[in-house]
Design goal:
- The complex is a heterotrimer of chains A (about 290), B (about 250) and C (about 325).
- Chain B has about 250 residues and is an alpha/beta fold.
- Helix content of chain B is about 40%, strand content about 25%.
- In chain B, helix 3 (about 95-105) packs across helix 5 (about 120-140) and helix 6 (about 155-165) runs parallel beside helix 7 (about 185-200).
- Chain C has about 325 residues and is an all-alpha fold.
- Chain C has helices at about 5-40, 45-65, 75-90, 95-120, 125-145, 145-150, 170-190, 195-205, 205-210, 215-245, 255-265, 270-285, 290, 295-310, 315-325; strands spanning about 155, 160, 165, 245.
- Chain C starts with 6 loop residues before the first helix and ends with a helix.
- The chains are: A mainly alpha (about 290), B alpha/beta (about 250), C mainly alpha (about 325).
- At the A-C interface, helix 3, helix 4, helix 9 and helix 11 of A face helix 5, helix 11 and helix 14 of C.
């Protein structure tokens, strides 16, 4: 029983990272109808950036979260300005997916050049690495990851529901043309969406790296799992993205604990494909989008 | 005269919207039937029902006496039913001639294997299709642009090519969804001329159209729809004087 | 409506001249290709790999370029060809040629069975579902150790052989790949120029309009998918029998993305586009050992630039540039 509980909590922690990736993808998709397959790659990039920043600045965990979040808010804004915006003026949505495949590849390539092919990790944010709660032995970093997810959700909710910028974003998500006619600067809103998704990727990466090892070739699994979570939840739905991410994390965690890693992956992805085929709208979302 | 197409009391509901209620009409062989009505009157839904894209909740569509309901759209050209869409939907990267050859797709023989190996069966039907396309281009006086990609053509020409594409399929019944949309006056006149010539070759047509001049000049009968209900049916001259029509549609237009 | 005055003389002139010229050009290209291993013997091994991937990408082009669909899961069929061919020859003593054929048929069957349900999905969802196939392929190759040899892969399968003749040397393998590449090019061109090719193009344009022309989108999409799978499977078998080795790295998710990247960079719906894309992506890491480190970054950036600025890929861009110059 204790074992099951620890496995589920571990799954929720990994799932939080998927949820944050899916949230970013979902946000970008709502604003610009682009699926950013490279979203997961930026999680790894942010994590290793965090390792390097930590190495030279020696700041606390929370401070590192903020610094890397700011850096990646800028990085993703630049990505939007330099890559996505010029491309989306010329390329069809299907081909935009390939643009982000190229980004995924480029980020992986940059990681290989800058950090080599060795795996990296980092010390947990809190000195006491493990605590016992209700008889469960849990890494303190778990709470940081879950906390980061909860804080991100609250911040995002406040932004979207309680600010004038949020109103503009919701209008853009609903109908970019109408929003633009009402005076919303749609390009700026999209830029901000990319910035936010950059910050989300950054906090996910920095929070998870003390629990794992990351290197250039972990970009693909994160990209795929984030994409899976986003679609599982229904593209464009924030609550769906979180549910999809957590669910995927737990399912993978449990399967990995009781089968082997490869079988876990096969079972998780097979069920995703089955869901796509049988209930294509995801946990939330509408059917009309999925099929022709 | 026998009726080629009979639509009997077709109804169709989308959620809270009654798109069509109890619509019926028939088209005699070789006739042109126009369907007019304000935007949202259910005209395109009606064509979608006839061509199998939408299933009616009730009612029936009879073509040559047999029901079309439940027939897949791609099976219709073989029966002799073809349609065009509101916006020209040519394949931009194929040439004009290739686009027209697509209209005769249901006459093409052999599948992938035959095509890959360029077997006699494929070669024979390709030759026949190319000859058909050449004849259609000749008829439309478009022979000179046969080898151009369809993508860059002006709207009026694209519309003619689309009509040509349908003709290449040797249809008995053609449904045209707003063929004159986006055309200027001279282009519309040219289109009307072509449609008259098509009619002369005994092809039956159903036309959805906003352009009243075109409707009045070529159609034998006009059905007027308003909010999914038929409000008038008859020859153009009679329909245009019908008070219900004047209020619902013509009054609004003038 | 009659702005076509200059088109008539153009049409009258081009066909004859270019038909003869292109036939001569094709012959020239074939002769050059046949002489390559004699001119650059050191490159033969590289050219064989290029030829093998060309086969897979050319098949994929029928589904992606011609039909306008997405598949990020071509490694599934490449793996069926490679691993299936390896297992049949190693464990069951099936001759290589027969193993290649059996696996090609098996791939076609799998593609047919997956085709109907998968191809109802649109755009991103089809992309994700096929990406899922790529993940399953990689995980199976890594995890199903008893069958696939796990991370260290399968090795020691025989070279391709016809009867008693074994294709052992690089030149011999090169000519096999060249012959298959040319046959594949011929088949693909045949389809592209026929009613079937036009039907696929119509589906790429607009599925509803295609249906109203008598083209059943489901059937044609499945056929294109089956064709792409068959080509990928044969490429996979050739890969396994030439290298006498296959490992999860050759059927990884990264490789699955690479198939699409090669096609997108080179350009769709031509023969030379896929060839150019394969050459570039395969040649970059070969250029030098230190350069190999830059390959993923460069490939990614090139893809972004090509998709943004050259909708028909590098080869399409070159052709457009050449036509503009000629005018």
């Amino acid at each position: 029983m204790r074992d099951v509980a620890e496995t589920v909590i571990g799954g929720l922690v990994v799932g939080s990272v998927y949820a944050l990736i899916a949230l970013g993808m979902s946000l970008i998709y709502s604003m610009s109808k682009v699926i950013n397959l490279s979203q997961g790659a930026f999680v790894v990039l942010a994590a290793l950036t965090g390792v390097s920043v930590q190495h030279s600045l020696h700041i606390s965990g929370p401070a590192l979260l903020v610094v890397v979040a700011v850096i990646f808010a800028v990085v993703l804004a630049v990505v939007d300005l330099a890559v996505i915006r010029p491309a989306s003026r010329r390329a069809s949505p299907d081909r935009m997916l390939l643009i982000t495949v190229g980004l995924l590849q480029a980020v992986g390539g940059f990681l290989l050049l800058r950090w080599g092919n060795l795996p990296y990790t980092m010390k947990p944010f809190t000195h006491t690495a493990v605590v016992t709660v209700l008889g469960l032995r849990l890494s303190t970093q778990f709470f940081w990851v879950l906390g980061v997810l909860v804080l991100s959700l609250v911040a995002l909710w406040l932004l979207l529901q309680r600010s004038s910028l949020g109103l503009k974003m919701r209008a853009t998500a609903q109908d970019p043309q109408a929003a633009s006619l009402m005076g919303v600067d749609v390009d700026k809103v999209r830029l901000i969406a990319f910035s936010i998704s950059g910050a989300l990727a950054a906090v996910a990466g920095v929070a998870i790296i003390p629990l794992t090892f990351l290197q250039y070739d972990t970009v693909v699994p994160y990209a795929v799992d984030g994409f899976v979570a986003a679609v599982l939840g229904g593209l464009g739905s924030s609550s769906g993205a979180v549910m999809g991410g957590l669910l995927l994390g737990v399912v993978q965690g449990v399967l990995q604990r009781y089968t082997n890693a490869s079988l876990a992956e096969i079972l998780a992805i097979s069920s995703l494909i089955l869901i796509l085929l049988l209930r294509p709208a995801g946990l939330r979302g509408s059917l009309a989008e999925v099929r022709r | 005269m026998t009726d080629l197409l009979q639509v009997t009391s077709v109804s169709r509901r989308f959620g809270g919207l009654q798109a069509l209620s109890d619509v019926g009409f028939s088209v005699g062989e070789g006739q042109i039937r126009a369907i007019i009505g304000p935007n949202g009157a259910g005209k395109t839904t009606l064509v979608d029902v006839i061509t199998g894209f939408t299933k009616p909740d009730s009612g029936d569509v009879l073509f040559e006496g047999t029901s079309l309901v439940g027939t897949a759209p791609h099976a219709l050209p073989r029966l002799g039913v073809m349609r065009t869409f509101q916006s020209a939907r040519l394949v931009p990267r194929l040439t004009v001639a290739e686009n027209i050859m697509l209209g005769g797709h249901h006459m093409a023989g052999g599948g992938f294997v035959s095509a890959a190996l360029n077997l006699p069966r494929t070669r024979r039907t390709e030759r026949a299709l190319r000859e058909r396309a050449a004849a259609v281009l000749e008829f439309l006086q478009l022979s000179s642009i046969g080898e151009r990609p369809a993508g860059g053509l002006p709207a009026g020409t694209q519309r003619l090519v689309e009509v040509g594409r349908v003709l290449a399929g040797a249809p008995k019944l053609v449904l045209l969804d707003e063929p004159a949309a986006g055309l200027d006056d001279s282009e519309t006149k040219e289109l009307a001329g072509v449609l008259q010539a098509v009619k002369a070759s005994a092809v039956t047509m159903v036309i959805i159209e906003h352009n009243m001049d075109l409707v009045m000049s070529i159609s034998d009968n006009v059905l007027v729809l308003d909010a999914g209900k038929p409000i008038a049916d008859g020859p153009p001259a009679a329909v245009s004087k019908d008070p219900a029509v004047v209020t619902a549609y013509l009054g609004e237009a003038s | 409506m009659s702005t076509q005055a200059p088109a008539r003389p153009l049409r009258a002139r081009i066909p004859h001249q270019s038909a003869a010229r292109s036939r001569l050009g094709t012959l020239g290209v074939i002769v050059i290709l046949a002489l390559l291993p004699l001119i650059f013997p050191a490159w033969t091994s590289f050219l064989i790999v290029v030829g093998i991937y060309f086969l897979a990408v050319l098949g994929l082009d029928m589904f992606v370029g011609q039909t306008g669909q997405v598949s990020l899961g071509q490694t599934l069929f490449f793996a069926i060809g490679a691993y299936g061919g390896g297992i049949l020859t190693l464990d069951h003593g099936v001759p290589t040629l027969a193993a290649t054929a059996i696996m090609a048929v098996a791939s076609a069957a799998v593609a047919y069975l997956l085709g109907r349900p998968f191809l109802r999905l649109r755009g991103y969802y089809l992309a994700l579902a096929t990406l899922g196939l790529a993940v399953i392929t990689q995980s199976t190759a890594t995890g199903l150790t008893s069958l696939t040899g796990g991370p260290s892969g399968l090795s020691g399968m025989p070279n391709l052989a016809i009867g008693t003749y074994v294709f052992e040397s690089d030149p011999a393998n090169y000519y096999v790949v060249l012959a298959l590449g040319l046959i594949a090019a011929l088949l693909v061109t045949g389809i592209r120029r026929s009613a079937a090719g036009r039907a696929l193009a119509a589906i790429a344009g607009d599925q509803q309009a295609a249906a109203m022309l008598g083209v059943d989108p489901a059937t044609y999409k499945t056929r294109a998918f089956v064709l792409a799978a068959t080509f990928a499977s044969i490429a996979g078998s050739l890969f396994a029998f030439y290298n006498r080795f296959v490992s999860p790295e050759s059927v990884s998710v990264v490789m699955a993305l690479n198939f699409v990247i090669m096609l997108a960079i080179g350009g769709s719906r031509t023969l030379l586009g896929p060839l150019l894309g394969v050459l570039l992506i395969q040649a970059l890491p070969q250029a030098s050992q230190s350069f190999a480190r830059y390959e993923p970054l460069l490939a990614g950036l090139v893809l972004v630039v090509v998709i943004t600025y050259l909708p028909d890929g590098l080869w399409g861009g070159i052709r457009a540039f050449a036509t503009r110059r000629r005018r």
